[in-house]
Amino acid sequence: MVSLPFWGKLSDKIGRKPLLMLGLGGSALMQLPMSWLFRGEVWQLVVSMSVLLVLMGAMLSIMPATYAELFPTGICTMGVAVPYSVCVARFGGTAPYLNAWPTGSFGGWTFAIYATLLFAVSVACIFGIRESRGKVLSSAVLA
């Protein structure tokens, strides 16, 4: 939470799209090393979680505004709510399962690989949105 205002201020300077790429790309690159770092000691958990949460803060600080800018004002609520809910149910709902069963059966790297792949897919999706920095937001679709 401490990093969110700093990421928000940076997005005002460089735009949302570069900040999304930085946060998602950095999270994808650091997921496996930070999983490797954690070996059961408290300090390792603090470092690995802090690094990943600061990187994820880059995208989480601007995500609500980014979602809202993808749709015209008349359908903004529905346009954000339905896809967001489906994705949270599909991927957020499967995360505990993919952390418990395959990790126990196939090793401790299963969830880290799953998260890395989802970060990589998200980075690819960022190429499909337009930058809104410096543009007047109206009922026109920016995506």
What does it look like?
The protein has 143 residues and is an all-alpha fold. Helices cover 75% and strands 0% of the residues. The protein has six helices and no strands. It has helices at 4-14, 16-37, 42-60, 63-69, 76-106, 110-126.
Task: Write a short abstract of this structure.
This protein has 143 residues and is an all-alpha fold.
Order of helices and strands: HHHHHH
The overall pLDDT, averaged over residues, is: 84
- How many helix segments? 6
Low-confidence stretches: none
Q: Please give the alpha-carbon distance between the first and last residues.
A: 28 Å
Rg measurement, Å = 17 Å
Helix content: over 70%
Task: Tell me what portion of residues adopts beta-strand conformation.
Answer: under 5%
The class by helix and strand makeup works out as mainly alpha
How many extended strands?
0
Query: So what's the overall shape?
Result: globular
How many structural domains in the coordinates?
1
Major beta sheet summary: none
SSE topology:
Blueprint: H1 4-14, H2 16-37, H3 42-60, H4 63-69, H5 76-106, H6 110-126
Helix pairs in contact: 1-2, 2-3, 2-6
